[in-house]
Amino acid sequence: MGLGRYLLRKALWYIAALFVALLLNFLLPRLIPGNPVDALVGKLAQGGAGSDQLQTIYEHYVKEFGLDKPMWEQFLVYLQNTFTGNLGTSFMQYPASVNKLIGDALPWSLAIQLPAVIIGWLVGNLLGAVAAFKGGWFDRGAFVGSLFLSSMPYYCLAILLLFGFAVWQPVFPQGRAYSIGLTPEFSMPFFMDAISYWWLPFWSLVLIFIGGQAVGMRSMAIYELGSDYVNYGRGLGMRDSQMVRYIFRNAMLPQITGLALSLGGLVGGALITELVFNYPGMGSLLFTAISANDYPVIQAITLIITVTVLVANFAVEVLYGLIDPRIRATQGGDKS
Amino acid sequence: MRFSVRFYVAAGLVVLVLLAALLGPFLIGVDPNTSIGGLYDKPGVHPGFGGILGTDNEGQSVMSNLLYGTRTSLLVGLIAGIVASAIGLVIGLIAGYAGGLVEEILMGLTNIMLAIPSIVIVILLSVSLPQRNIFTLALVIGITSWPWTARAVRAQATSVRTREHIEVAKMSGANFWSILVWDVLPYLLSYVVMAFVLQVASAILTESSLSMLGLGPSNIVSIGMMLNWALAWGSIRVGAWWAFIPPTLMLTLIAFSLFLLQSSLDELFNPRLRRGKKVKAGVVTPDQDDEFLPEAGSAAGPAALMEAAVVDRTREEARP
Questions:
Q1: Phi-psi bin for A273: left (phi > 0), alpha (psi -120 to 50), beta?
Q2: Do A268 and B252 touch (CB under 8 A)?
Q3: Can you give the C-alpha Rg of chain B in angstroms?
């Protein structure tokens, strides 16, 4: 079974998933009774905008969404806009483009998520493997602790940390991402200021992530511990550290999947954390968009979350195909 | 049956939450929607059970809101869990047992649904709802979270399909549906129960996430709505801990007790996860013919898949 055929098959499935996602993304907000553009223009009219201006705004949206055309043509317009990287115009902040709003928000989301995912993954896996290997009270403590952390809703920990370390014991500043009066720029003073705001959201995410990874790694490692090669190795009198290394490597493959999926979930992984800390990322943008019925922004955010998840999943499939010949063999297409 | 300490702890906590949700609203005697005082009155300012946790941003009793909110959240979780488990069970059973083209189609659908982050569909559906109440929300959550139950059930059903008693049932003239219900389903029940517990827990968390994003049920208090109000009114900044700590802890307690229950059930049903007992027989073969990536840990069989679902939860909520 060739690698090429395996990849082709996978690629087709992911394209199908992407198509379904695009279709849902296009269709669902259009099912809302009444025309959102009419509602928007009505609201603007109450706000006292002139009729000429309203007419321009109205025509702009009708053209952008192709609202005067039949549904299937609207979908084609949507696809064309999406694939050319044009996410539309915000309802809420007309005439700001959605691309710009997202461009402003996305770096903040990545800044708290990316380090949390990577560090949490490394520490969590190490903790899980050691807990499984050592057993006893260390295992029990680590397991229940990890299970507690991983089953704690991530925003609950965020709330507790914010209260504990920004209000009760004001070690860190409250909310936001940088001090009022500063503008984001690449300079040392701004960086130092921003990082003091960064710690709390980061800790709230990394702790949860360590817990989740440790629980998964522990059960994988316990599974490995019961296998023949471990008994054999023990019989040969191998050192513990050597054994841990072997178990770690074998239990690793599914955990790599976990890492990639988390990387794919970067954009949407901490939506509510940002709300708690008032952090100006995708979560806060989504929240304001939802409260203002800003459908173009909502659709753009859901689309980006979907695409990153699909891309990450597909990347892991490719990697798996390369690493593990068994997967190529079983999935290459001979099976059915 | 050998119940572990963990099981009793988990079951005790779950019963505690259930009692609070079922009896609390009747015992408290304070309407969650009436003001008993002003903005963020401290605990104890108002007499009685209703004032024990002070008041919230609208001067309503936090204790009363907490008890009613717990009831709402559990109800949403239960309905969504039942919907998701039912759809997942039916699709998984039919796909796993029927095989062939039916399986290809059903699993193709499941895998596509699994690949699209369900939070995206939940958000899009909720945004499009003309009005949001707890039943529509539960339904939305339920119909977006069935795919992984379907996949776990289907993996199990496939392994049951080739057993001898199925042949016997076929020869004695049992029809397709009767075999599914009487000869395949009983072998999967332990998995379905565990999956159901996880579905309930994740549905409760999804409801809270939605509420905090501003997509919660209207005209009714849930734990997520309490957190939503607490954030919107800046209770954390002014240090009104009684307004946000109780719902935070309650949500954590619910999630933790359900996940603990699931993991102790897993240990009970799946001897391979128990230490010291190395049962080798009946090892489920890795589920490797799916079109999409298995969740972390699924290489060790569906039981690990369930556990992986716990691991994936933080992510699940994001995608999900």
A1: alpha
A2: no
A3: 22
Which of B115, B231, B289 has the CB atom closest to A310's CB atom?
Answer: B115
**B297, B308 contact by CB (below 8 A):** yes
User: pLDDT averaged over chain A?
Assistant: 81
d(CA B256, nearest CA chain A) in Å? 5
Contacts of A84 (CB under 8 A, 6+ apart): none
Q: In chain A, what are the domains? A: 107-291 (1.10.3720.10)
Q: Which residue of A has its CA nearest to B278?
A: A226
Domain residues for B57?
A: 5-269
Q: Using the predicted structure, report yes or no on whether residue B154 has a pLDDT greater than 80.
A: yes
> What is the reported pTM?
0.83
Asked if B307 is an interface residue toward chain A (Cβ–Cβ < 8 A), one would say yes
Would you say residue B292 lies in a domain? no
In the chain, the amino acid numbered B159 is S
C-alpha distance from residue B143 to each of A25, B170, B185, B312 (Å): 16, 33, 21, 19
Q: Tell me, yes or no, whether B304 lies in a domain.
A: no
Q: Which residues contact A139 (CB under 8 A, 6 or more apart)?
A: A131, A132, A218
Report which DSSP code applies to B3: -
pLDDT tens digit string along B229-239? Answer: 888 888 888 88
Instruction: Select the residue from B124, B261, B265, B312 to test the A interface by mutation, using most A Cβ atoms within 10 A.
Output: B124
Instruction: Name the residue among B212, B289, B307 with its Cβ closest to that of A330.
Output: B289
As a three-state string, the secondary structure of chain A is CCHHHHHHHHHHHHHHHHHHHHHHHHHHHHCCCCCHHHHHHHHHHHCCCCHHHHHHHHHHHHHHHCCCCCHHHHHHHHHHHHHCCCCCECCCCCCCEHHHHHHHHHHHHHHHHHHHHHHHHHHHHHHHHHHHHHCHHHHHHHHHHHHHHHHCCHHHHHHHHHHHHHHHCCCCCCCCCCCCCCCCCCCHHHHHHHHHHHHHHHHHHHHHHHHHHHHHHHHHHHHHHCCHHHHHHHHCCCCHHHHHHHHHHHHHHHHHHHHHHHHHCCCCCCHHHHHHHCCCCHHHHHHHHHHCCCHHHHHHHHHHHHHHHHHHHHHHHHHHHHHCHHHHHHHCCCCC
Q: Distance between CA A50 and CA A55 in Å, rounded?
A: 9
A47 phi and psi angles, rounded to 5 deg: -75, -5
Cis peptide bond N-terminal to A95, omega within 30: yes
Q: What is the CATH number of the domain that holds B133?
A: 1.10.3720.10
Answer whether residue B285 is part of any domain: no
Q: Is residue B113 part of a domain?
A: yes
Is B244 part of the contact surface with chain A (CB cutoff 8 Å)?
yes
With H, G, I as helix, E, B as strand and everything else as coil, classify residue B113: helix
Distance CA(A265)–CA(A203), nearest Å, equals: 18
Mutate to test the interface with B, among A9, A127, A156 (most CBs of B within 10 A): A156
| pLDDT for B287 | 39
Q: Which of A171-180, A241-250, B294-303 has the lowest mean pLDDT?
A: B294-303
ipTM for the predicted complex:
0.81
The residue of B4, B120, B235, B295 whose CB has the most chain A CBs within 10 angstroms, and thus the best one to mutate to test that interface, is: B120
In chain B, the number of structural domains is 1
Helix (H, G, I), strand (E, B) or coil at B188: helix
